[in-house]
Amino acid sequence: MRKNAFISSVLSVFLCVFLLSPNADAQKLSSAYGAIGGTFLPMWVTHEVGLFKKHGLDVDLVFVRGGSIAAAAIVSGQTPIAGTDIAVVSMAGGGADIVFIATMVNTLPYFLVARPEIKTKEDLRGKRAAISRFGSASDFVTRMALEGLGLAPDRDVAIVQIGAVPDRFAAMEANLVQATVLTPPTNLIAKKKGFPIIVNVAALGLKIPNSALATTRSYLRSNREIVRKYLMAYLEGIKVLKSDPALSKRILSRYTRVSEAESVEEAYRIYAGAIPDRPYFDLPSIQRMIDFYKKSRPEMAKLKAEDVVDMSVLQEIDQSGFIDALYKN
User: The CATH number of 111-204 is which of 3.40.190.10, 3.30.390.30, 3.40.50.10330, 3.40.50.300?
Assistant: First the structure.
């Protein structure tokens, strides 16, 4: 009995090494992600457990500071597939060849957080709010939250480009800015340090993608098989993320550099619940975002949700039964 158990264990180890070891024929690919926040947890898990390699891709996962930077890297050809945000909509509105192919977090898990001396919305008037980059998800959410409070972005509250979530939080702690939007787990750390939540954007239940995978239509046309392999690996990564909480929380903690167990636990709970098994986009919500941008950017008047979303590869994979098979056991 003990001998059989030993042989089974050895075979399991062998299979893992065989499946996840580098493949000499694997397609090399640089893939960026635009924030140090749990919204990109599916990419991290997919990479860390070797699923890209399993599907024939040798992916170099690279962090860039902001969804808009990741989107620009896609358009410039520096990275053909990347995890970005609603900056895709902004760039597409300007005529760039860029398109969403699968969502990650299909909600906005943001919290507008301010310094302890900020007690009411009026205390924000004349202050500075930090975002990552103009046109990014943090920019969109900040402007939407301020308008919801009756404050005019840029006029009543200055919008300042700072960078990723840790950079924005550090700037607020140093009083370089007085407010910013944070995502779990950083918002939980901020709350424990006495920084009040002014607006819980997550509670609004908007189906606007906070993070998503994107590429260019030209790359999709000429490299459809690579995109298919990438999405298959990503879909399997979502399954691992949801079925192995302990592993996913370790990965989340390492990438976000947050070790406080309670914050990591709460962040995982939020993201695991917000990441769909079938990562399709809600087109009416994409259109709502376009309509928001139109108020200040008339050149986006003719842009439609269908212009910035191509779910054809995802649909092909889904219709093949691949996603159903992942969740049978």
Answer: 3.40.190.10
